[in-house]
Amino acid sequence: MDRILKSRNVMGWAQASPLALILFGFLVLPILTITVVSFWRATEFSIIPAFSLENYAFLFGSDVTYRVFFATFKYAAITWALTLGIGFTVAFYLAFHIRSQTMQIALFLLCTIPFWTSNIIRMISWIPFLGRNGIANQTLISWGVIDEPLEWLLYSDFSVILAFVHLYTLFMVVPIFNTMMRIDRSLLEAARDAGASGFQTLVHVIFPLTKPGIMIGTIFVVTLVMGDFITVRFMSGSQKANVGRLISNDIALLQYPSAAATSVVLLCTVLLTIAILLRFVDIRKEL
Amino acid sequence: MSKIRYSRRSILKSGGAAVAASALPAPMIWAQEIKDITLRQFGTGVSNLNEVGQKVKEELGFTLEMTALDSDSVTQRAATQPGSFDIADIEYWICKKVWPTGNLQAMDVSKIKNYDKIVGIFKDGKLTPESVVAQGTAPHTVGFVESEGSTSFASEETNWMTLIPTIYNADTLGIRPDLIKRPISNWSELLNPEFKGKASILDISSIGIMDMAMVCESMGEIAYGDKGNMTRNEIDQTFAIFTEAKRAGQFRAFWKTFDESVNLMASGEVVIQSMWSPAITAVKSRGIPCVYQPLEEGYRSWGGGIGLSKALTGMELDAAYEYINWYLDGWVGGFLMRQGYYSAVPETSKNYMSANEWGYWFEGKEAVEPIANPFGDVMAQPGEVRDGGSFYERMGEVACWNAVMDENQYMVRKWNEFIAA
Q1: Residue B14 pLDDT class (50, 70, 90 cuts)
Q2: B416, A249: Cβ pair inside 8 Å?
Q3: Strands B199-202 and B251-255, sheet pairing
Q4: Please, what is the angle between helix A29-37 and helix A256-280, to 10°?
Q5: Alpha-carbon gap, residue A16 to A23, rounded angstroms
Q6: What are the extents of the domains in chain A?
Q7: How confident is the prediction for chain A on average, in pLDDT?
Q8: Which residues are CB-neighbours of B232 under 8 A, at least 6 positions away?
Q9: B19: pLDDT strictly greater than 80
Q10: Which of A68, A104, B140, B197 is an S-S bond match for B125, by CB 3.0 to 4.6 Å?
Q11: CB-CB under 8 Å, B408 with A132
Q12: Closest residue of A to B245, CA-based?
């Protein structure tokens, strides 16, 4: 008994098993179930456990599916570019321009304050602001910038992406800030001594060393945007759709197998996207 | 705690009931035991009101537990979880889907006291002898079955009713007259390019499809054989027209909940949209002009009723019948009519409304005093008339009922495509 316990193998398995069991029960099993159900057929009240490719045939046979997947990638790409731009700038300022650590922590906490409320509230509060008779339009009209209210401010791709950027920029700031703080300051001094300009230091020293942080932020933002449905529903007034909306509609209309099929396709797409992203940066090596 | 509080009252009550039981020959449930009965009712939000539950406790003595869900969940639950409810408060189109599962039991008409006073819409389908029956799932077509255990609907009145009608109304488009500034008299106006980016439709498939059909028919684009039971081809054509309009930017937004429809209208984002009667009053109560516009093609109507679970027997079943008889006795009817709905037995509801309220809500007369709903909000000022007029003018102009089609599954998938298009 004693020997068995002391064996490295057994101890290793024992230590890994709680997490493995949890992941199996709450991650692997549900995904397997969803995959199985996606091949079933359904009527309005019953789900028929018979193997059928009907759901996939309908999904791939409709041009709406392709449009929706395209829209999903479009939202992900634009949101990613904007959150990266803003996130990198904010993190850079916090990490290199603020000298006192107290101040850094204080300003960092300031960034997180909006996250103390629910993200639905943060999202919905844009609606009266951007509306046809909202604050933004009224202000612009009173300044004489525009004569007619801008229609595209609300219930458009613009408002959807605005909300995404607002909701998810912090997910970019945090990992980038974290990696920047761990950059050895003497490297910056060395670059300076070797005659690099501020911009050259940024591009050739800071940026490459921040890549793991950027990649972690990217994974957060891309997966959050690709899996979202509620932001798109509220901010576009149901006029735009992404894959998440497709799934939530199916569920509302009791089409579970069809929703499962769409989920499986989405899951594969997201996994592929992340696999491609990870080809660029080895997160584990550079952390 | 509650036992102590109620003890004196329940003694009085059972005493009273005993006297009543000996005085009246009618079957009366032993009042001491009725306290312990709990009936579980579930349904859509419109009539699942806590006030009704409280009143039942006061007047009938037993407990009514209420659960409000959206129409899709209601349908699913009635069809798949028969053990989870005693009373289902559902719409007639839901009944069409659910009845064949055998989860509900037919009700003996002879036990319904006010049966003779129920309006014709729910019996032979005719409001007045001259009325023409509208398309769609008209309540009387799914209102009766041949025999107690039958799972198919009867074509005429029988002794077995599927649902006891409780609440119904005629729906149409809501408009902002101050922003439109001209008369609106057809459903086709919803897709009029004049309102580009200022129109909306509701994102609930079984109701939205009927609004769409009213619009396409009014435009003269599609001549439906039966709007309430479209062919695949008709469904495709309908969605083609609406998808084109959507891509051209006709709609500002779609709405799914009552509050969303109110906000869209009140903020001026939308000036014409499918709407429900109480949403109009909610906009008006903010001081914003809003009209429930009667249209030439008529109304899209809906009706709800209560059905009994198959599992209900013995004393619980008797209690359910008492509840139904009480429901039709007028208090609930008055409560609902003062919110703008109609009661299945209007004449009993009249006893629970003032002459002013009855005149405004039912007869289409000018209000002589301010009209308030049961929650105290003022709905209309003296001199105002209800949009669309009297009960007979409104319910007499029904063009179609909310419906379940044979091609429902197909329609639902196309609906999902339309929303994502």
Answers
A1: very low
A2: yes
A3: parallel
A4: 130
A5: 11
A6: 62-286
A7: 89
A8: B407, B410
A9: no
A10: B140
A11: no
A12: A239
Q: Residues B64-83: pLDDT tens digits?
A: 998 888 777 788 888 888 88
Distance from CA of B205 to the nearest CA of A (A): 8
Cα distance from N-terminal residue to C-terminal residue, chain A: 39
Q: Nearest-CA neighbor of A273 among A77, A31, A67, A79?
A: A77
* Most distant pair of Cα atoms in chain B: their distance: 72
In whole angstroms, what is the distance from residue B93 CA to residue B153 CA?
A: 13
Structural domains of chain B, ranges and CATH numbers in brackets: 32-170+301-352 (3.40.190.10), 173-297+390-420 (3.40.190.10)
**Nearest residue of chain B to residue A149 (CA atoms):** B269
B27-58 burial code (b ≥16 CB/10 A, e <16): ebbebeebbebebebbbbebbbbeebbebbee
Q: B270-313 pLDDT, tens per residue?
A: 999 999 888 888 898 888 999 999 999 999 999 999 999 999 98
CA dihedral B361, B366, B371, B373 (to 10 degrees): 20
Asked which of B30-34, B221-225, B358-362, B378-382 is least confident by mean pLDDT, the reply is B30-34
Q: What is the CA radius of gyration of chain A?
A: 24
Inter-chain contact B415–A44, Cβ cutoff 8 Å? Answer: no
CA dihedral A102, A104, A107, A109 (to 10 degrees): -80
- Is there a contact between A44 and B420 if contact means CB atoms under 8 Å apart? no
Q: Pick from B169, B170, B118: which is nearest to B144 by CA?
A: B118
For residue A130, give the chain B residue with the closest CA: B269
Report the alpha-carbon distance of residue B288 to residue B263 in Å, rounded. Answer: 11
The string of pLDDT tens digits covering residues B95-130 is 988 898 889 999 999 999 999 999 989 988 888 888
Chain A residues whose CB is inside 8 A of the B205 CB are 253
Contacts of B199 in chain A (CB under 8 A): none
DSSP B232-296: HHHHHHHHHHHHHHHHTT-EEEEE-SHHHHHHHHHTTS-SEEE--HHHHHHHHTTT---EEE--T
Q: Which of B69, B98, B412 to mutate to test the interface with A (most CBs of A within 10 A)?
A: B412
Hey, which CATH number is domain A62-286, 1.20.1740.10, 1.10.1740.10, 3.40.640.10, 1.10.3720.10?
1.10.3720.10
* Tokens 């009712």 belong to residue: B41
Whether B103 has its CB under 8 Å from any CB of chain A: the answer is: no
CA separation for the pair B383, B365 (Å, rounded): 9
DSSP state of B175: E
Q: Which residue of A has its CA nearest to B404?
A: A44
The answer to whether the complex's ipTM is over 0.85 is no
